[in-house]
Amino acid sequence: MESKKPARRSPEPAERVRDAERTKRKLLEAAFAEFSENGYDGARVGDIAARAGVNKQLISYYFGGKEGLYRILVREWLEDESDHADSDVPAAEALTWYLRKNLNDPRIARLALWQALSDQIPEEADQSDVDRELEHMRLRQERGEIASDLDPAAVQIALMGMTLAPIVFRSTARRLFGVDIDDPEFETRYGDTLSRILARLAETEHHPKGTTRP
Fold first, then answer.
1. Which pTM was predicted?
2. Can you give the C-alpha Rg of the chain in angstroms?
3. Is the domain covering 85-205 a CATH 2.60.40 domain?
4. Which among 124, 130, 158, 206 is least buried, having the fewest CB atoms inside 10 angstroms?
5. CATH fold of the domain at 16-73
6. Residue 107 near residue 210 (C-beta atoms within 8 A)
């Protein structure tokens, strides 16, 4: 006698939600890899789906297409940045966080470089995001962490450049330090020097607010 196959059980609503979240997370991770390797223009929906191991139609279903994927990735970074580099976080601590993020995942710097090379990339960060970062720098300046005679916008972009530099000039950094940037020794030496540079940008008893340094 032929045995009956057990009836296929439909997934519970909670299971479907978890499956959907796992799929979306896999697509976001695959998109991060694809965008960092090929840029926004060079990334292909089919390749992103193949990396994630899912049907490419799910990209449109969950994100509305490639642009939606990219915008969410940028927004997640901005939210992470807000949590770890807010104005109440000491400048040295925020700088260390940026450096560690970039060293641990060079894809962040690669995305920034691709964005600099193309004017077709969707802009998720708007002027309000930029203004908020600048306001954080001004508040640090008011606390004396940044000298009053320094342009906060210039300090902001200079610090960004210093945390991105090891990834941009990786081979040069390796020759200078004698170790690769993923070696803990590099993070310790370079991070310590960045902290010392930042300390020298702060107000001191010898350079009170409103004075000009020689």
1. 0.78
2. 23
3. no
4. 206
5. Arc Repressor Mutant, subunit A (1.10.10)
6. no
